[in-house]
């Protein structure tokens, strides 16, 4: 399964490069360019006491921000992006609201063009975490109880390394970094178990996001690849795709971490749009299977 994922991903990236290799690099923009969008998605459902079809009144909202700041001059390019998402839902009768989304990510990549090709030498930095605390809920108790499981910088991911950037436009680029350093940071609250060898051994059988007992970070060294593609698939419908892959040379190199996000914006007018977000993550340090997130709703968008 994991090898199939890697093979399909590499084939996809390779086919995209080959299919576009004859195109001319976009040099129409010189200097700084910037773009961004702020979105607010809102969902709400209400059922009165006489409603016989079942259902629970609820309210939900999601705020997202994407902002790109890019520089191009001669052979030098510098692309920066900031992504923030946060969402909550509250069901009638529940004591606690629940997160539906919580994401903070920053990317920067510097490139120096190789001859007159679409390729460039590159160096990238990627940071990922979340804004606020996350919880697991115990539905068997009355009232429902919750236990904190995550928070800002727990986990926090930082990875960086040199590589090669293939870039035709700001809307279509691929970066391959065969020597990538990766740090996973966590709060000591979640890994402190004392000095009992038996407890330490038990904890390390399923370490917290890969970080072992009484530690606050984990270092990995491997290879990463990322691809970004944005296209207007039809009038007023734009699809943005982001794919990130990572292999750890030091431990279980047969495993491939996958993070794919698709963001589709279906524009209604200057302010309103229907937004669909789909994300699939595979990281065996976090969960033994795919993590799937999907958000759909009516959005109010502000261009920045």
Question: Outline of this structure?
Answer:
This protein has 304 residues and is mainly β. It is built from 2 helices and 14 strands, in the order αβββββββββαβββββ. The strands form 2 sheets. The protein has a 12-stranded antiparallel barrel.
Low-confidence stretches: 1-24
* CATH class value: Mainly Beta
Query: What structural class should be given to the helix and strand makeup?
Result: mainly beta
CATH architecture: Beta Barrel
The count of β-strands is 14
Major β-sheet, in short? 12 strands, antiparallel, barrel
In whole angstroms, the N-to-C terminal distance is: 41 Å
Q: CATH fold name, please?
A: Outer membrane phospholipase (ompla), Chain C
Radius of gyration: 22 Å
What count of structural domains? 1
Shape: flat
Note the total helix count: 2
Please state how the strands of the largest beta sheet are arranged side by side. Answer: 1-2-3-4-5-8-9-10-11-12-13-14
Strand content: over 45%
Q: Which oligomerization state do the chains in this entry correspond to?
A: single chain
**Helix/strand order, N-terminal first:** HEEEEEEEEEHEEEEE
Estimated helix fraction? under 10%
On the 0 to 100 scale, the average pLDDT is: 88
